Amino acid sequence: xxxxxxxxxxxxEISKTFAIRIVNLYKYLKEEKSEIIMSKQLFRSGxxxxxxxxxxxxxxxxxxxxxKMNVALKEATESAY
Length: 81
Prior knowledge:
single chain, 4 helices, mainly alpha
């Protein structure tokens, strides 16, 4: 089992938790606020972070890993916007 500090810094768990929160926010915006366009974009960029992080976990090279992490960073920046 990971120690608390290691678990807090585990990018795989953090990105998964974030994606789950984004999905819940998307559902709320769509159902309660009838917001479609922005919620879809937030859904795509927010869930893409975790997808790229997990792809990076199985990267074929260090350059491939770096590329996946950079894409995840760009998606995180877009989600924050």
